[in-house]
Amino acid sequence: MDIIENFLTAGSAGEIFKALSQTCHELGFDYFFYSPLINGGNSETVFRDESIILEGEALMMQNTLLNYPASWVHRYQEAKHTHHDPIIRHVSKSILPIFWDDAVNAEPQNIVLNEANEHKLASGITVTLYGHGGARSVLSFAAGQRRNEPRVEAIKNASHIQLTAHYVYEALKKISNISGTIPGSALSTREKDCLKWSANGKTSWEIAMILKVSERTVVFHLTNAVKKLGAANRRQAVVRALSLRLINP
Fold first, then answer.
1. What is the C-alpha to C-alpha distance for residues 109 and 93, in angstroms, rounded to an integer?
2. Which domains occur in the chain, in start order?
3. Average of per-residue pLDDT across 4-11
4. Secondary structure letter of residue 45 according to DSSP
5. At what angle do helices 189-199 and 204-211 cross, to 10 degrees?
6. Three-state secondary structure call for residue 202
7. Which residues have C-beta within 8 Å of that of residue 83, sequence separation ≥ 6?
8. How far apart are CA 160 and CA 49, in angstroms?
9. Is the pLDDT of residue 85 over 80?
10. Cβ–Cβ < 8 Å for 164, 139
11. Residue 181 above 60 pLDDT?
């Protein structure tokens, strides 16, 4: 819960970076990469202008947060690897997370994956986030060595990373004031109740039992809350409500 609070109270990109770094290391990874996913014409990319190599603060100005080895960040842009990256290719077509080990097994000779390994990015997980208005972002957590973790643990990590992506998106959105905030009066008391219990991991059926209403009523309120908050789904609505202090964690 402390980590969530760090995202909710972050007042700068630097503070978001710090919270993301803490989450990354607590999940046992070494590196992270968060970036908006941009339509580059014939393919997706994570860089607005591939003719210019950006590093450090310049990338942060474009809402890209990362602690990847600087040598790899430079090489990736220099070689225009985004066009040959199976990870980017996957997130362009699927909302499901991708485990880098699976990509390596599928394309053992892929130049991007092989060079990433040479730059100490040996294993990782990448998730996709759909934001307001169809905007998409990607978040990767990577390790310097291949992780021999059970599949169940890998899936659990992917779930944590997916949730983290929501918090990063909302935190960046808030500090950049992309689309303002939703006034507290926009949500009804019942909608806030449903969001609060959903934030605590309760299913629609469980929330119905707690509030003594039908499951259909709970779904109705949560659907309305998602629309009012301009969220893509229930999970994102919960994160946004927490970020805007409309509900307490």
1. 22
2. 2-176 (3.30.450.80), 184-243 (1.10.10.10)
3. 83
4. E
5. 130
6. coil
7. 43, 45
8. 31
9. yes
10. yes
11. no
